[in-house]
Amino acid sequence: MSKKLPAQYTGEDVIRLFSEHVDVIVVVDKNTDKYRALIRRGIFMELVEEEGDYNDLLSTLLIHLNTTSEKLPEGYQAFLPNFGTFTRKYSRRLKLVINEGEAAHIVQMMVYPLADEDAYMLIMDELDPEENEQESQTYRKVETIEKTFLFSMYIDLVEDKTGSLNISEISEENVQADLKYSDWRNMIVNVIGKDDQALFMERSDPEYLKKMFTPGRTSSFDCLMQNLEGVYIWVKLIFSRIETGNPNDYKYVFMVQNIHEEATAMFMSLKKLSDMALTDSLTGVFNRGKIETSAKNAVKNFGGQNEPLAMMIIDIDYFKSVNDEYGHATGDKTLKWFAHTITDCLKGERADIGRWGGEEFVVICHNRSLDEAVEMAERLRASVAEKPMPELKKVTCSIGVTDVRANDSFEDIFGRMDKALYAAKSSGRNRVEAG
Fold it and tell me: Of 3.80.30, 1.20.1530, 3.90.980, 3.30.450, which CATH number belongs to 18-127?
């Protein structure tokens, strides 16, 4: 059969060819949120049912990550009814993953409203492999931007509406959504970290935005926010008021920037600096300031904790002779070895360990009575005496122990355990005494 020339084709011919080649045609009734598939071919035999729930179809086609078919976390599910309402013609590329680990299928979707504005037709075709590769290359080019800016939208506070909604983890293109700003705000707060929700509601409040933002002004704040994979990450929320020339216009651009890697690195650096400020640089246990603060806080909270509390002070026996006979380098090694030994011995205990000064160390024993703390001290003393120190023949220690009592001040407690330590040293050292 000879091919027809373009001029020979009739409207009926074109419609017949179209119906023979298009991959899927779906008719949607928005009043009932139901759809019916008139034509299904290829991958759509698996993706689209003959008829079903429109929100389920949206979830399959539109509302999922670029690289997976997984559903969105529960907090984002509330937005589904606001997507996929079409009042005019609309076209969009879709990236659909059928089998995890396989390449995504690139689909062109076109939407045509029917005579009834609450009904429309969805027509979809999978693009050929070459087009797929072009799409993949384009995606790779914008991947870095997507990792940085996760979300953006236009806001009109006067009209209480949003527009130009772009969720980069779903699509490089804008997402069609019929969504009031007030509704969006009350829903999106559920994916903000609990500790940051009050700040988000304050900074996103329309009256706050009107009062605090002059035309052209941009402001931002950082918070934890759940991404589309259900993981909380650090983001920067950015509001910028658009300059329209009309002071009564309150139009804004809102963006979410992914700053998780930078924020995590910063917090790690801050923790490292904080640890350095609280740690004895030689031994690695708490320094004098930190252990004293911890002890005073423990005493302050003692009455309301409804659990016993004890403390001990430990002194390395004859430490001055170590420095005199072997030198300060060996003395430093001895202090490090001693701190490691008592830390290792007290693993599993709720105990704070700190260097009080020189060769003296203080231990706060949480939820331990005097008798239990004495037992801990004996175990610790024996561990020190029995563990060999390479540069020295033997290292021993003396320990003074006391418990915290009603109406005690830290000075009262320290005085008792210091007196007990003196008694231990006076009785021959390598001993534990309670006071």
Answer: 3.30.450
